[in-house]
Amino acid sequence: GQHEPAAALIIDGRMVAACEEERYLRVKSAYGQLPYHSIKACLKIANIQFEDIDAVVTPGITYDDFGERIRDYLRHNFGSCPKLNQVHHHKAHLASAFYASGLEESLCLSLDASGDGASGMLAYATRKDGIRILEELPTENSLGYFYTLMTYYLGFADGDEYKVMGLAPYGRPNIDLSRIIRPSKGGWVFDWSFVRSEPPPRSPFEPLYSSAVATLLGQPNRTPGGPMTDYYRDVACSTQHVTEECVLRLVNELQASAPMSRNLCYAGGLALNCSVNRRLLYTGEFDNVYVSPVSSDRGLAIGCAYLGAVIAGDQPWQLWDAYLGSCYSNEEIRKELLSNGCRFEEAHDPAEVGASLIAQSKIVGWFQGRSEAGARSLGNRSIIASARDETMRDLVNARIKYREEFRPFAPSVLYEEGQQYFRTEGADHSYMCFTCDVHADKADSIRAVVHVDGTARVQTVRSSNNEIYYDLIRKYREQTGIPVILNTSFNLKGQPIVETPRDALMTFYGCGLDALIMGDFVVRK
Fold first, then answer.
1. Per-residue model confidence as pLDDT tens digits over 42-75
2. How far from 143 is each of 197, 232, 241, 473, CA to CA, in Å?
């Protein structure tokens, strides 16, 4: 990946592993690194040697010397370099969504700040003929840059766009941003002069905005950590609102310029914006809206691997789930517990223990199976709690995540009960890619996971995808009558999601968690 390094391994068209460098390095996002640990982890998962790799695919096709640098890097670290293919950043995003979806044909969209000289791509794809690019969006008209610009204006840092999304429902869309960006036929018009050009930004991730936004709006930017006023809440709401309108206009354009299709596959950093995705889902224009579970630059590796399979003449398999990372055996976990001098017990039924603990309003670290790819914990590296009581949300924010009180938490719900609690519109909600409306008659019973606007970023859990997590929620329902629990990523604010048993222990002892269930072992405070 170009911003968030990762590696993915595909064998005979099947995605075998996808690992992110930040999890192994323990540096959030790991900008500027190459995926050394991720490559090693993929090889270990597949039980193969680097010499067994037939081809390497990487983005960066618009950079003159990128291929040569990658070759040098691989030769130096792994002793050789197989055939190297370079592809366009946005084509990799498109592939990560289309081939993972399993659909036969689809409209495809990629949107982010910038990659390989573009900020987005529109395409139509079929399994038979591949991905046909319809339009490339220039960086100068980048919706991702606009959102980042406003993120910095609101006093948040690099990669904090999701905080703006979480803050937006607390405000009103009454700030006129049309001088900066405005929806128009075919998408939007963005005034690039608001992005600082002198000296040119070395990367999209330093404070980009000039004083121009403050001058235009007549208010200074919020200083990081400063008071959050109604004005800034309104700016967040207006930013989110105009972004949604822009994406909807662009999707209308895509529908008009491509064959009639009732499917949409979507990836790129902007596809992390679940509130935009909710609008796409609720338009009723599509039978299927598939958002890549690893839609940001972490997912470029998955897209590159899929494109490599196509180049090699293999049929890419659908992505069945996002549990594509490393796994740690009970033996490895026991060894880590003993070498750290931890007091622990072995559980005959970890799901039963976990369900009982959260039913007693305990907050639990939950560590099972292979780590999930992407920015969101999906029940293998999760912090879990009861969703019944609103105070639980505040408790998890204060005692464990040490983060802003306006940030919502996600519900995990048994797949077959999802529609009773959430307006799911028949989409696949395995990956927390959409916020959904919570049915009004159910909201009171799951207060801790309902956002201020009555929505929730839902994850439906099937026993075929994650048997032990499904079992945990089922047993919790037997005890409480409610098939929904609170699920947040197993990390402290500013840190990557835990990867190894040692990471889990360090996090457990560094915050207010009550218990840790790791494999078959239970550690209590």
1. 999 999 999 999 999 999 999 999 999 999 999 9
2. 17, 20, 13, 39
